[in-house]
Amino acid sequence: MRPATASAVAVGVLGLLLWCCTTGEAPAVPIPPTLDATPAATDVLTAPLRQDAAEAGPPFVLPPAAPYDSPTCHHPAVVSRCENEWCVLPKGCFLFGTPESEKVRARYGEELRETSFTHDLLVSQFETTQQQWTAAGLPNRSAPNPRADLISDCLENRCPVGNVTWFDTWVYANILNDREGLEHCAEPRECTGTPGGGLQCKRIEQLVPSLYECRGYRLPTRTEYEYAARGGTRTEFYSGAMTGTGDGPELHLREVAWFTENSGHRTHPVGEKIANRWGLFDLLGNAGEWVTEEGVGLATPAGYLVDFRGILNPSDDSALIRGGFANGAPWELRAGGRSLASIRNASGTGIGFRLVRSLPSAADAGPADATAD
User: Fold this and answer.
1) Which residue of 69, 93, 231, 262 shows the fewest CB atoms closer than 10 Å?
2) What's the pLDDT tens digit per position in 230-242?
3) Residue 343 in 3-state DSSP?
4) In whole angstroms, what is the distance from residue 66 CA to residue 300 CA?
């Protein structure tokens, strides 16, 4: 993965450092409207007609969900419940991480752990678009890149917004929270620059005991992102298993993701590939997406995890980007991949995000002795 601007050099350096160390249904919930009205695909599980006659063939269909299940960890039914560009993911348990046999698995941070959530989660069906970003009154810094080997942002309304810092995403989240009368989960502090325009800050102030308890919009945690990206699957991609070494062609991945093989090294308008079985688009490839967590090369704690890493480090400058980029190799798009290491004040073309929100839940999930962090 290669970010595209000078301000994102740290993303590539830390990413290389990380790489070299690797070898039943929930009750109905009201879903809020978004700032724009991007139409969703009519069939999220089947590929659109191919324009290249040489690739003509039967439409690709996603493999069925095969959720992990054990006496202590029950994955909920995987059903698409999306409305107004937001999808509800039920609380429950899944197997976080990757097996030791997975190719290009990270040495740390991909250990297999049963992981549960105590609240249903509202997830943006798409990456945040440039139209949504500017509708919030924020400057659009998405841009092409003069170097053909680096990633460029496409510049249509429905393209994912790019070139945003980790702190910028919290500015956007709180604009939505203010418009809908929701609480702020966290706020950037000691900042310079233009809010939403490459904001540089020294720290983040968390305003709730746990992000999982906050009812406002926020970035997803790393475990929430993986739960969303897998869509009930346990293979490298929700389209199926990785068939090669991770650097070569992956035909089924082309149906669900923009990556180095098919993107032209630029992002594309959201929702053009097949969604996973939750109904979520572009969680693999296209724009890389900020998540809440910090840390490089840290092992996942042992034991059963509940609402993992719900507390932000106020001043740690490191941050993680999930999902891979439009110019990334297949191995970089693995659903359970550790993430690209970056810093919170970094920005670059191809770096975007999507928001989530915890929904009220009547009961807790997971054993009393579970590990929460």
Assistant:
1) 69
2) 999 999 999 999 9
3) strand
4) 24
Can you give the pLDDT at residue 297? 65
pLDDT by residue (tens digit) across 246-280?
998 999 999 999 999 999 999 999 999 999 999 99
CA distance 348 to 353: 12
Q: Which residue has the tokens 């739960």?
A: 227
For 90-229, strand residue ranges (E) read 92-96, 113-117, 121-124, 186-192, 200-206
Average pLDDT across the chain, whole number: 85
SS3 87: strand
Amino acid 113: pLDDT? 96
Angstrom distance (rounded) from CA 236 to CA 102 = 8
Cα–Cα distance between 339 and 328 in angstroms, integer? 12
DSSP SS3 for 54:
helix
pTM: 0.85
Question: Would you put residue 40 in left (φ > 0), alpha (ψ -120 to 50) or beta?
Answer: beta
Walk me through the domains of the chain, giving residue ranges and CATH numbers. Answer: 1-21+63-373 (3.90.1580.10)
Of 217, 167, 208, 186, whose CA–CA distance to 358 is shortest? 217
Can you tell me whether residue 226 is helix, strand or coil? helix
Residue pair 356/122 in contact (Cβ under 8 Å)? The answer is yes
**Residues 23, 117, 231: CA angle, nearest 5 degrees:** 60
Residues 6+ apart with CB under 8 A from 235: 63, 241, 242, 335
